[in-house]
Amino acid sequence: MSTPSNASTPARNSAPAGAGTGITTGAISAAHHKQYLTGSRDDLRVPVRTVHLTDDSTVRLYDTSGPYTDPAYEVDVRRGLPPIRDPWIDERGDTERYDGRIAALGVLPGAPVVRPRRATGGTAATQLAYARRGVVTPEMEFAAIREGLSPETVREALAAGRAVLPANINHPEIEPMLIGKDFLVKVNANIGNSAVTSSIEEETDKLVWAIRWGADTVMDLSTGDDIHTTREWIVRNSPVPIGTVPLYQALEKVNGKPEALTWELYRDTVVEQAEQGVDYMTVHAGVLLRYVPLTARRKTGIVSRGGSIMAAWCLAHHEENFLYANFRELTEILRAYDITYSLGDGLRPGSTHDANDEAQFAELTTLGELGRIAREMDVQVMIEGPGHVPMHKIKENVDLQQEICDEAPFYTLGPLTTDIAPGYDHITSAIGAAMIGMWGTAMLCYVTPKEHLGLPDRDDVKAGVIAYKIAAHAADLAKGHPTAHEWDDALSDARFEFRWQDQFDLALDPDTARAFHDETLPAAPAKTAHFCSMCGPKFCSMRISSDIRAYAAARGVDEESARTDGMREKSAEFAAQGGRVYLPLAD
Amino acid sequence: MSTPSNASTPARNSAPAGAGTGITTGAISAAHHKQYLTGSRDDLRVPVRTVHLTDDSTVRLYDTSGPYTDPAYEVDVRRGLPPIRDPWIDERGDTERYDGRIAALGVLPGAPVVRPRRATGGTAATQLAYARRGVVTPEMEFAAIREGLSPETVREALAAGRAVLPANINHPEIEPMLIGKDFLVKVNANIGNSAVTSSIEEETDKLVWAIRWGADTVMDLSTGDDIHTTREWIVRNSPVPIGTVPLYQALEKVNGKPEALTWELYRDTVVEQAEQGVDYMTVHAGVLLRYVPLTARRKTGIVSRGGSIMAAWCLAHHEENFLYANFRELTEILRAYDITYSLGDGLRPGSTHDANDEAQFAELTTLGELGRIAREMDVQVMIEGPGHVPMHKIKENVDLQQEICDEAPFYTLGPLTTDIAPGYDHITSAIGAAMIGMWGTAMLCYVTPKEHLGLPDRDDVKAGVIAYKIAAHAADLAKGHPTAHEWDDALSDARFEFRWQDQFDLALDPDTARAFHDETLPAAPAKTAHFCSMCGPKFCSMRISSDIRAYAAARGVDEESARTDGMREKSAEFAAQGGRVYLPLAD
């Protein structure tokens, strides 16, 4: 079987003609085939990654990578992705197009101007509203097929508020997905240029790169210049839901002075982003004035940017947080576009020392209250969580959040389980992420090796996503997800049977697995050798074990006969044949 | 403050004249100072790493790196480390020197021939025997000072078999340390050449490299040529306990044919290694003939090398495992040298599918039985554990092991929590390692990124050790170790106060933390800037939070006054001063 380059960084611009600014395209491994499962209608095509193994079996994996890994798709980042949801939204007939505030700003150079949609006359054009009315939307069916579940299961979870399906009606390009503890644990990757470094093209490439390795959603945390244009590129080219923190852009508009923020300015920013198609928004409405002093005796104060901005505003004005004070009006806006709330934990701990303190849990109580208001108004809600939490305090976070917030999906950053390893916080936090995922967190916000130190580059984005896919999958296994183990089992079978190509193709990162193997045993025959590079041919336990199994199977040795000592004669047979447990090398 | 090179690979041969074959020496960071705490006698000098911070405070860290990081020590790998324990062993007067089997083989080129010791006339020259007799040995006192505990606490834990202090009387070079759930969680690194690749010099360097980053013990798993000489280099240059699997060398002696192994040949090998100074030995005495067929229906059979060798032997001869059959005689040998048993889990699962099955737990029961025999004979015992275990099955492993094996220290490989990420198994397993450590595992055997794929090089050894130090420390925090949090708190304080140099110096890996920061903000002033490279100067939440705290402290705002709304006037004050939450950049 021919294999692609095993370089750890695939060639860019490997896409067909028409590819734009250095986007990575094509299958990760030659044995990976993009396929689409169809639903109840022809325009409902759910992507899956089918891995073809050398024993002629196949393994089907959940696929977040969008059309970029489909060789039949011609990438053009200036045109954006096809608006696959448009017919579905049109058919529902409860939205209208209008002249957006800054429509002219909101298009890519050369792309047609598209007027934004909003719900007609204050109706709730949300997936939550449909679910409650008993309607299974195409989005729900799409997501259900992805999860391997019935559409009705999905509808019920959404109706109960136990899950969300983030899908702004102005982001018709997305492939719908679910966030909820009943489903596969999801991973979010943060990207975003900052005042200090990075460019629009780089951020668009980071989006495609992040979903290539498995990010289920992406947050655009840009804070620098061209924030609107950067976001436009990202949204138009994203098959996954995009999240933002509108407060960051609002703060840019007042030159970085929190006390100059106003509700009106913030509201305008939310509408601007709503029209672009942002699918979920982090809103720090739980940072109440009276909670701010609770952080004064902390070791690391307030480490959430949004939280610190709102705290500074509250202190400067000595007024209640304007996001809290205007929460119903804000909710009406989100409802008109079906934007999902991600209620931010502005007072999350920034050190293991500060974990699970009064400030953190006080805010959580307010987030629970706000979540109930949002759901009453048919707006989807998830709740953000910490942060830095030592392992013995992790479960309390999920349990309290689930109780206080009526089982709304929990969306946590890590948590980091120790503070001593800057440079390795993808690992300190993958430990916490796996555990909190096992106990019920629905989506894990990744942390890269650069956390606390600098801005992630492409390699850091990949390292963060991979660490978090590991955490999420380990959590799926531990939660007893009915199909999660199939991937592990397929890889374990390939390992035991020395099918090296299949091990690489089934690896979360085939490039790295292949490259590491080649470092020690670069020769092609090593890929079919019945041993691995660690122990060499004479010492391979897998090989001895395989021989034991073959011996036992061929001679009818089973557990019972072994127990009743029926193996003595068989042992003589084995010895008579030379007691060979090693076979000549296949080459 | 001057800082050393921030290259990720420090210069080799940076040691004083006399340094040998490319060993990495010198402090990891210029702010790290090697110090020695003294005990009740002058020759009891316990190493610690004191980190000098820019605010004139210091943090004292546990130090495994040996004399190699002491600038006052002149390294000579051909001479080996000073035999600091010799006077202690001499004083006890219960050992004798004799002509070892292959003494001439067992010395480094140019080094003086040292005759090995053994206990006189069948006495138990073990730390366990002394602990039971109420004697606090210098080794116990040394280890107690390292842990910050009283010698009596240590003696009690050893006497009860809840902890071990691996210290072969022929390895006088070690700095004694403890393995037990009452103490800091320890990390083992495996090194060892194989038939396929690597050299003696490389393995010696890997030892020094592994302990530099925090390995508490090192296992030499060499299987290739020159196995005896490689081990001699490693033992003579190791300040940490060295473990081996004697079965590997025994198998070399019969050209890799398990069925040709005999008890006599194995026993000779153990004595040979005992004379060299191996501190603990993995012995797969629990792989009983009747357990082998229990693995036939597994997905990945037997993945322990030792386990598969013994299984093949049992099947070939249809006799009981000769290690089990001769266990008391073997124990007498280990007792004569104070070698600690590491009872191997030859039937550990090699895939998440096979975790916690009948074969695994059947063997565990036998290990419990053997542990009781060993302790009755005054020989120290730890028990090895899995392997590959999904998260929800991890706790059962510790609980059962502690119950069945009378709280003997548990020593686990990982466990890996999923099988899908070859190339990243340091992460899949650090998750499991942290959890199993929290629940009571005493020592974690590291896994490198090359696991399942190839042999670890220097970078892999470091990556594996760092991932496992994270897991071990996270476990110490979660166990509520009384001093573990001091390290995190010091780093969190430095982070909140923008003391960048201190953050680097306190990092588990200062080189990487510094290099990552410099990638984004290379200018020297950035190291004193009151913001970090992620958000830039305008957006720094830590900075806003710091301003909030300063504001609150200066004006007497506290939690109570905030609750009673006493902040209204203070808010006016804040606004009157311009509401400044950002200060001009310090440069």
Would you write up a description of this structure?
Two copies of one chain form a homodimer. Chain A is of the alpha/beta class and about 575 residues long. Helices cover about 40% and strands about 10% of the residues of chain A. Chain A has 21 helices and 15 strands. Chain A has helices at about 85-90, 125-130, 140-145, 150-160, 200-210, 225-235, 245-255, 265-275, 305-315, 320-325, 325-335, 360-375, 395-405, 425-440, 460-480, 485-495, 500-505, 510-520, 540-555, 560-565, 570-575, and strands at about 30-40, 45-50, 60, 95, 115-120, 165, 180, 185-190, 215-220, 240-245, 280-285, 340-345, 380-385, 410-415, 445. An eight-stranded parallel barrel of chain A has the order 8-9-10-11-12-13-14-15, surrounded by six helices. In chain A, α13 links the parallel β13 and β14. In chain A, α3 crosses α4, α8 runs parallel beside α11 (about 325-335) and α17 (about 500-505) packs antiparallel against α18. Chain A is globular. The model of chain A is unreliable at about 1-20 and about 560-585 (pLDDT under 50).
The percentage of residues in β strands of chain A lies in 5-15%
Mean of pLDDT of chain A: 87
Overall 3D form of chain A: globular
Please give the alpha-carbon distance between the first and last residues of chain A.
15 Å
Please compute the radius of gyration of chain A using only Cα atoms.
26 Å
Helical content of chain A (DSSP H or I, runs of 4+): 25-40%
The main pleated sheet of chain A reads as: 8 strands, parallel, barrel
Class inferred from helices and paired strands of chain A = alpha/beta
How many helices of chain A? 21
> What low-confidence regions of chain A span 5 or more consecutive residues with pLDDT below 50?
1-20, 559-587
Number of strands of chain A: 15
Widest β-sheet, arrangement of strands of chain A: 8-9-10-11-12-13-14-15
Q: Work out the oligomeric state of the chains in this entry.
A: homodimer
Largest interface: A-B, 138 and 137 residues
